[in-house]
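Database export, one record per block. Field names are fixed; values are copied verbatim from the stored entry.
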Amino acid sequence: MHNTQVDYRNGPLLPMILRFSVPAAVSLLITAIYNIVDRMFVGNFNGTSALAGLSVCFPFPT
C-alpha cells in the first residue's frame, strides 16, 4: 500500500480544498438527483399521500 504524508498546516491551500471539496460536492449532487427521481416515481405511481409521507420521512437517516 502506498502511504503519502499530507501536511495540512503548511501545504498549499487551494489544491487541498479542491481535493476534499470536489468529492463531497459530487456526492451531494448524486444524492440530490436520487431524491428528485425518487419523488417523481413516488408522486406519479403512488399518489400525493405517499409523496407527503416521503417528504416527512426524508430528513431522517435510514
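Remark 1: The chain has a mean pLDDT of 83.
Remark 2: The CA atoms of residues 33 and 39 lie 10 Å apart.
End of record.
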